[in-house]
Amino acid sequence: MNETIFPNIIDFLKATSSISIPLNIGSGIILLVIGFHILTKKPALKKWGWASLIVSGLFFLSAISNWIVINNVL
Description:
Keywords: Membrane, Transmembrane, Transmembrane helix. By secondary structure, the protein is mostly helical.
């Protein structure tokens, strides 16, 4: 008998998404603060500030997509 904890992929995605949403939001906020700090205080590192803001946005998009999976919006 091959029993699994998650009988299908949707249940697995819901379980992992509920954990990753707060982590993605927290990481996005941290990178957002770092990015704005670099852009305002360290003009020589401007490209790293923009890179930090872009990655922060990706974390927020990941949190939104995980929320969509949990709530079956689509």
